[in-house]
Design brief:
The complex is a heterotrimer of chains A (255), B (358) and C (304).
Chain A lengths: L1 E12 L2 E12 L3 E5 L6 H9 L6 E6 L2 E2 L5 H7 L1 E3 L12 H9 L7 H5 L3 H21 L14 H13 L5 E5 L7 H15 L4 E5 L3 H7 L2 E6 L2 E6 L1 H5 L2 H6 L8
Parallel strand pairs in A: 3-8, 3-9, 6-7, 7-8
Antiparallel strand pairs in A: 1-2, 1-4, 4-5, 9-10
Helix pairs in contact in A: 3-5, 3-6, 5-6
Chain B lengths: L13 H16 L1 H8 L4 H27 L8 H18 L3 H20 L7 H20 L19 E2 L2 E2 L3 H23 L2 H11 L1 H6 L4 H27 L9 H14 L4 H13 L10 H16 L16 H7 L22
Antiparallel strand pairs in B: 1-2
Chain C lengths: L3 H32 L6 H18 L2 H5 L1 H28 L7 H23 L4 E2 L9 E4 L2 E4 H23 L1 H11 L1 H6 L4 H27 L1 E2 L3 H16 L4 H21 L5 H15 L14
Helix pairs in contact in C: 1-6, 1-7, 1-9, 1-10, 1-11, 2-4, 2-5, 2-9, 2-10, 4-9, 6-7, 6-9, 7-9, 10-11, 11-12
The chains are: A alpha/beta (255), B mainly alpha (358), C mainly alpha (304).
């Protein structure tokens, strides 16, 4: 079953074509890697799926909804969450509060119940803290709930971003270079984490350059070059695709 | 057992903080009697000063929601104060409404105008928003100066506004207004403290930290900014009712750009986002100069220089806002530590319960 | 009454007033471009310029002793120098210590400096209006058909235009001007390219106030009277002009100033004197609604 499909999605920035007519689909429950050289338009594709960039043309469907041109918060509510290529936590707030930001869209307390601290609001606060702590336990950061997000180690910040995204209860999780800046061991832990996220019935799309990470983790790979989708298939198929080897893998052999 | 932030007795020294606050509030409640026992002649004057401080505290607390919590550069708060005051004056003098009945309408009118004017501009970047809000306060002042719709009495203002009364008791003397105003301050502190530590308040905090990230985590940033603006404006409208009934006469010069600047200064000087800071700021900006009447015309000169000096030495404000405190429910607290003990306790002095903290 | 001559009157008045706004707006926009700070005390520097001019021309009687052309030329030079010095001191005392602090702290410091200067001027020169005196400039009026153009209008406009042209050349043709433009676009990158950003800041805090001081003197000559709190309204107007033009953009400040001057005189002439300022702000808001960063915005890109 398709959970996400892109249909001829196009984006130009001031005459420069960033993404040119990309069409593809993502199956529910899959881990899909989006790979390609720098400047291929991968992040632009993610930005269009999550609503931070509006496509010039084409359609995007998610779980039966057309999501093209919706504002990011609406898309989050529908079930797509993301992390950022350059970490974009709320560095001055605590680890717990960062995760609570993800819980926001699943909460109901409004202005009046907050202003008057009505019983329903207090109950919800208690539940949501438990919920946020559960996500922190899931990524292994529960012990640091009180720390300031900006003070965490780099790898922990990446994992906190994932916990924050998971708190939105997504059906599709989009990770933009989750292993960027991580060491060998952290990358392996991340691979295990991606596996257990998939076990929660969350579909995953990720951009990553580290082929040692991508190949075993992903079921499906999409390869982009110069804004065009040049290949898709299983990691095996992609590895043996001469076009891909030429465009991307060949250049990055020793990376 | 309660979850949720800022519940009185958490944190080191919290109990002492709460006790001190309690003692402070109690002492404050007896202030009129104390002042009268010190000097019958000057007590009304000092009570008037305290009332002005209180009124500006309410206004600054409402601005704090917009400027401190949501991080929107708003330098036109006097506009909404004016709308509230004039709504009360018009309904009272022309239509014979009682003052307390006009209060919700004043708040509503200010909130409504805020919603309408903020709608198209809420997305503007910091300094652009600043000039637009200055523009709004000027437009409102010019409108009331030019007797808009024949309702506002032009530059002469409006006279003969009644006093508020509760169950037949009419507030006349400064000490009556003292309790009325400072109880409203207490209520404002309490409600906005709750608001700050809720889903709503957190959403504003996320917006202030990083609007793009907040939006990407599912916060409807436009809606929350707008709501913060409307709540702050409505509360300023409510303060307008109190102002109009206290002065009995209002005129455009009470609602100028300079008044807006004063409120802005109180919030930033005290510590934006911090209610204790705003309280202190109000006392310093509105109250302290009264002690220097001897300097006469040099008072304001010194005030200006003092602002520069204070900002250089305390750019974050005198009492900056502290991180919110959360308490984990039951078993989680045993596993990962409550607020009291833990591996990396954030610096959390003193209680921040409601009520004025000197 | 609303004939073509009337229109020309409003137009020439608007251009003159607009050129004064533009001079002041340049100070806001240059400082903002480099420091991202709204110099709320800039209006007071304009007032200071007006009062220095008053002291030189009226109190010391240079207008009578030197004769109009020499007296005005000399006082322009003096005013520009003195206000530039005041601006430099202002930066040293009130802004430099806050360069790396929260932006709102710098705003409040600027407001404090503004309050201080305004009251210092009031204490020094008094709270009442001061007249420049009609005899400073010969009362010459040029007639072109039925349209009459007073000399003072030509003089004010010409002085402002000449200074702005010189500034334009300086900004676009010299290496110091290039440094200012570079620092306005990206301070960090400018620093990496070997530009002394501190010096650039010091420089804009000399040029901006100098232009503002000159504008103050021109206000005195044009309107004949000055007041200690004139800076507040001129500052607000010029700041509006800078925003309309796109704050941080030097050409934008000139365009915005002239536009605002025209907008004001035309709305005074054809709509209502009492409502003209409200009208100005409504137009400002409309411009920002449709162009959120002004007519000629500085270039910025947000990256995700």
């Amino acid at each position: 079953m398709r959970i996400l499909s892109l249909n001829n999605v196009t984006k130009t920035f001031g005459g420069l074509v960033a993404v040119a007519g990309v069409s593809c689909g993502v199956d529910r429950g899959a881990v899909v890697g989006l790979i390609g050289p720098n400047g291929a338009g991968k992040t632009t594709v993610f930005n269009m799926i999550t609503g931070s960039t509006r496509p010039d043309d084409g359609h995007i469907f998610f779980a039966g909804h057309s999501i093209r041109g919706l504002r990011p918060h609406r898309i989050v509510a529908l079930g797509i969450a993301r992390t950022f290529q350059t970490i974009r936590l709320f560095p001055g707030l605590s680890v717990l509060e960062n995760v609570l930001s993800g819980c926001h869209c699943r909460m109901r307390s409004g202005l009046v119940s907050s202003l008057l601290r009505l019983p329903g609001q207090r109950r919800e606060e208690r539940l949501v803290i438990e919920r946020a702590m559960a996500e922190l336990e899931f990524v292994g950061l529960a012990g640091l709930w009180r720390s300031t997000a900006g003070s965490l180690a780099y790898g922990d910040q990446r994992r906190l971003e994932i916990a924050r995204a998971l708190a939105t209860e997504p059906r599709l999780l989009i990770l933009d270079e989750p292993a960027g800046g991580m060491n060998e061991q952290e990358t392996q832990e991340l691979a295990a984490l991606v596996g257990s996220i998939r076990d929660r019935d969350v579909t995953i799309m990720l951009i990553e350059h580290d082929m040692g990470f991508v190949m075993p983790v992903c079921d499906q790979l999409l390869v982009m070059e110069n804004g065009i989708l040049i290949a898709q298939g299983t990691p095996q198929e992609i590895q043996n695709n001469p076009k891909v080897v030429e465009a991307y893998l060949g250049l990055d052999e020793d990376a | 057992m309660t979850a949720g932030p800022g519940n009185g007795n958490g944190g080191g020294g919290g109990i002492w903080g709460t006790c001190l606050t309690g003692v402070g509030v109690l002492a404050f409640a007896f202030l009129p009697s104390i002042l009268f026992s010190l000097s019958r002649n000057s007590a009304p004057y000092w009570l008037d000063v305290l009332n002005t401080v209180g009124l500006y505290t309410i206004l600054a607390l409402s601005l704090n929601v917009i400027l401190g919590h949501a991080g929107m550069f708003h330098m036109g708060h006097a506009a909404f104060f004016a709308i509230g005051a004039y709504a009360t004056a018009i309904l009272n003098t022309s239509f014979g409404w009682s003052i307390m009945a006009t209060m919700p309408v004043a708040a509503l009118a200010a909130g409504l105008v805020a919603a309408v004017v903020a709608w198209p501009i809420i997305h503007l970047r910091g300094d652009y928003l600043l000039i637009v809000t200055i523009g709004i306060v000027e437009i409102v002042r010019i409108a009331i100066t030019n007797d808009i719709f024949g309702l506002t009495g032009g530059s002469n203002g409006m006279y003969g506004i009644s006093r508020p009364s509760f169950f037949g008791f009419t507030l006349i003397k400064p000490e009556h207004f003292f309790y009325f105003i400072w109880l409203t301050v207490g209520l404002t502190v309490l409600l906005f403290h709750w608001l700050e530590n809720s889903r709503f308040g957190r959403a504003l905090k996320f917006i202030k930290e990083d609007t793009v990230a907040a939006e990407s985590m599912g916060v409807n940033t436009t809606r929350y900014k707008l709501m913060a603006f409307v709540i702050g404006a409505a509360w300023a409208g409510l303060a307008g009712t109190i102002f109009a009934s206290r002065m009995k006469t209002i005129s455009p010069e009470s609602f100028t750009f300079s008044e807006s600047v004063l409120l802005f200064t109180i919030v930033i000087l005290g510590g934006k986002g911090s209610q204790r800071g705003v309280l202190l700021g109000s006392f310093l900006v509105m109250g302290l100069p009264e002690f220097f009447r001897g300097f006469q015309d040099k008072r304001i000169l010194v005030f200006g220089a003092a602002l520069v000096v204070m900002m250089i030495f305390r750019p974050q404000g005198l009492l900056p806002s502290k991180p919110s405190r959360y308490r984990l429910p039951g078993t989680l607290s045993e596993r990962y530590g409550g607020q009291e003990a833990g591996d990396k306790p954030p610096p959390l002095p003193g209680g921040d319960g409601p009520g004025p903290v000197a | 009454m609303y004939d073509f001559d009337f229109f020309l009157q409003q137009l020439s008045n608007g251009l003159t007033r607009g050129s004064i706004y533009a001079l002041i707006a340049l100070g806001y926009t240059m400082v903002y471009g480099v420091m991202k700070l709204i110099n709320f005390a800039h209006g007071e520097l304009v007032t200071l310029g007006a009062y220095f001019g008053y002291t030189l021309l009226v109190t010391l009687g240079l207008g009578r002793s030197l004769g109009p052309p020499l007296a005005i030329g000399f006082s322009m030079v003096m005013v520009v120098g003195l206000v530039a010095l005041a601006g430099h001191l202002l930066e040293r005392v009130a802004y430099r210590p806050l360069r790396h602090s929260d932006r709102l702290a710098a705003v409040v410091s600027a407001l404090g400096a503004s309050i201080f200067l305004q009251n210092a001027i009031m204490l020094k020169w008094g709270a009442q209006y001061r007249a420049y005196g009609a005899e400073l400039l010969p009362n010459v009026v040029f007639h072109i058909g039925s349209f009459s153009l007073p000399l003072v209008r030509v003089l004010v406009f010409a002085a402002a235009a000449a200074v702005m042209a010189a500034l334009h050349v300086f900004i676009h043709r010299t290496s110091l001007g290039l440094a200012i433009r570079a620092a306005a676009i990206d301070q960090g990158a400018a620093k990496l390219m070997g530009i002394d950003v501190r010096r650039v800041i010091a420089l804009v805090f000399v040029i901006g106030p100098a232009l503002g001081g000159l504008a103050g003197l021109l206000v005195g000559l044009y309107y004949g009277q000055i007041n200690f709190n004139m800076g507040q309204i001129y500052g607000l107007k010029a700041f509006t002009a800078a925003i309309i033009g796109g704050i941080g953009n030097i050409t934008g400040a000139m365009v915005g100033g002239l536009l605002l001057g025209l907008l004001e005189t035309l709305s005074e002439g054809y709509i209502s004197v009492a409502w003209k300022d409200a009208f100005t702000f409504v137009v400002l808001i409309m411009i920002l609604v449709f162009r959120p960063t002004g007519l000629l915005p500085e270039r910025v890109a947000e990256k995700l």
